[in-house]
C-alpha cells in the first residue's frame, strides 16, 4: 500500500459549487476509484486560500495502468469536465500533472 497526496487550489467563487458536487459524487465515479485500487480517499479544503489537499491509499501493483483505466472511464471524464473548470493547478506542479503530487515526509500509525 502506498499513501499518496496531491494539492491544487479552487478558483475564486467556486467553493460552494465544489462542495455541492462532492456532497453527491456519482456512484459510477466512486466505482472507478475503487476499481483502480484507491482506498481511504479524502479531499480537504483550506479556506480562505481555497487550497485542496487530496489523500488516498493505493492498494494496487500497477499505478500507471490503474490511472489509465480511470482516464478511460467516460463517466470519470465527464466528472472531470465539470470539476476541472473550478480548479486552479499550482504553477509549480510537475509536467503532465493537474493536481501537484506531494512527497510523504512523515507517517505514524
Task: Give the radius of gyration.
Answer: 14 Å
- The first-level CATH class name: Alpha Beta
What's the helix count? Answer: 4
Strand-and-helix sequence, N→C? EHHEEHHEE
Provide the domain count: 1
State the helical fraction.
25-40%
Low-pLDDT runs of 5+ residues are none
Q: What do we call the CATH topology?
A: Alpha-Beta Plaits
User: What's the β-strand tally?
Assistant: 5
Portion in strands: 25-35%
Kindly, what is the distance between the CA atoms of the first and last residues, rounded to a whole number of angstroms?
14 Å
Q: Judging by the overall fold, what is the CATH architecture? A: 2-Layer Sandwich
Class derived from helix and strand content: alpha+beta
Shape: globular
Largest sheet: 5 strands, antiparallel
Mean pLDDT score: 97
How would you describe what is shown here?
With about 110 residues, the protein is an alpha+beta fold. The chain has a single domain (about 1-100), classed as Alpha-Beta Plaits, CATH 3.30.70.100. Helix content is about 35%, strand content about 30%. It has 4 helices and 5 strands. The chain has helices at about 15-20, 25-35, 65-70, 75-85, and strands spanning about 1-10, 40-45, 50-60, 85-90, 100. Strands 1, 2, 3, 4 and 5 form a 5-stranded antiparallel β-sheet that branches. The radius of gyration is 14 Å and the shape is globular. It starts with a strand and ends in a 7-residue tail after the last strand.
Amino acid at each position: 500500500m502506498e499513501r499518496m497526496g496531491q494539492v491544487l487550489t479552487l478558483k475564486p467563487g467556486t467553493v460552494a459549487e465544489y462542495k455541492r458536487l462532492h456532497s453527491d459524487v456519482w456512484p459510477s465515479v466512486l466505482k472507478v476509484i475503487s476499481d483502480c485500487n484507491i482506498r481511504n480517499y479524502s479531499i480537504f479544503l483550506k479556506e480562505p486560500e481555497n487550497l485542496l489537499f487530496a489523500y488516498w491509499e493505493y492498494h494496487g501493483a500497477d499505478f500507471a495502468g490503474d490511472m489509465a483505466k480511470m482516464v478511460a472511464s467516460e463517466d470519470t471524464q465527464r466528472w472531470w469536465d465539470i470539476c476541472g473548470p473550478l480548479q486552479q493547478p499550482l504553477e509549480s506542479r510537475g509536467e503532465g500533472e493537474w493536481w501537484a503530487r506531494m512527497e510523504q515526509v512523515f507517517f505514524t500509525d
